[in-house]
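lol ok so funny story. i was supposed to be doing the assay writeup but got distracted and ended up predicting the structure for this chain instead. priorities right. anyway since i did it might as well share w the group, maybe its usefull for someone
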Amino acid sequence: MADSTNLQASAFTAQGTPRDTVALPGDTFDGTVNMPVMHLAVKAYLANQRQGTHATKTRRFVVGGNQKPWAQKGTGRARQGSTRAPNWPGGGTVFGPEPRSYRQAITRQAKALARKSALNARAGEGALHVIDAFQYDAPKTSRLLQLLARLDVAHKKVLVLTDGVKANVFLSGRNLKNVHVMPYSDVSAFHVLWSDTVLVESAALGTVLEPMAEKETARVKVVKKKKVERSRKPEDAEAEPKKAAARKTAAKKSAAKAAKKAKKAAAPAAAAKKKPAAKKPAGKATGKATGKATAKATATKPAARKKGK
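and the output, tada:
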């Protein structure tokens, strides 16, 4: 897909002050976006990052197993020749991964086209900004972070492309998780597509913007994360009343169960309060005393009658 009109990009100073828009060079930014070539370039880049050092041991590399575990015949068991066969625990691995190269080749023309397509895609989205000049006397992370905060991209993945190797700019962004600084000549399609926003130094594009005289500006609060409100689907909106009704019924059921349990727990205590106190049985000593007294009375009565006679 190609567009004959030249693309425009917003320009800023190194402190984040807006400048006039800049016309991007037509030889690179002509609107060409070739998706299949970008896919091939990114796939080849990721494949070439793999070391391919994975390895497993086949039965010839596993230690032990040089002797037959038991005799060939007479034991009643299946014949075995080694304890390092794949069917044994601790044995060798069959068809396991071995060290190999994952390298994929891609032509220089395809690389250049993928890089050009990725830059055109970011420029077409309005995610490519031009910075007049990165003039850092010393590494300063807070300075680069303030620039990103003023551009409202501190919470995004940012690719900073400088005109040649600039160590101070690289060291300023090295400690930032979502910032990658590299020369414009070394950028690939993968790096551009990885980022959400691309900041390019004007000299790298061949359009030199003279730095503006700026005063010290107030510090801006850095917002590293922004909450993204997801658009609700109509199906979710329709299902919300049903979910609310289900939650209410579940709450009622749980409350009824809790009340029932509390009632069961309180029933034995209430029954114990209503039950009358049991009478204490007469002691053994008192029973014995009364028995002796009755026996004496019966014994003295006949004696009294004899005296009367």
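The chain is about 40% helix and 10% strand. Residues 59 and 92 are 4 Å apart (CA to CA).
back to the writeup now i swear
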